[in-house]
Amino acid sequence: MLLFGMKRCPPCTHLERLSGVRLIKAMVHRGGINTAVVTGGPIRPGDVVRPVAEGQAADRGVSTGADRLVLRTV
Questions:
Q1: Does 17 fall in a domain?
Q2: Residue 37: inside a domain
Q3: What is the model's pTM?
Q4: What angle do CA 9, 29, 41 make, to 5 degrees?
Q5: Can you give the pLDDT at residue 74?
């Protein structure tokens, strides 16, 4: 699976509303990241997430340089 990191997703009050537990202070600097799926596949517990260099992404058929994915707000 190959993902393109779009933007940070810091903890918010939405999680607190869903869980009923005050979590924001405990979750500071532990947010996630919103991504675009470039190539799909299963995600299993214990899978490792690691950055991939642009050259490695190109080897896997991903557009790079001027043609790479760009963050856009719609």
A1: yes
A2: yes
A3: 0.57
A4: 45
A5: 52
Residue 47: in which H helix or E strand, if any? Answer: none
Contact 11, 30 (CB under 8 A): yes
Q: Quick check: is 22 in a domain? A: yes
Q: What is the pLDDT of residues 5-55, one digit of tens each?
A: 878 888 878 888 888 888 888 888 888 888 888 888 898 999 998 888 888
Count of the separate structural domains present in the chain: 1
Phi, then psi, of 65 in degrees rounded to 5: 65, -135
Q: How many CB atoms lie within 10 A of CB 68?
A: 13
Question: In angstroms, what CA-CA distances link 1 with 16, 22, 41, 57, 65?
Answer: 30, 33, 5, 11, 20
For residue 7, tell me if it sits in a domain.
yes
- Is the CA virtual torsion 35, 39, 44, 47 positive or negative? negative
Q: Which helix (H) or strand (E) holds 5?
A: strand 2-9
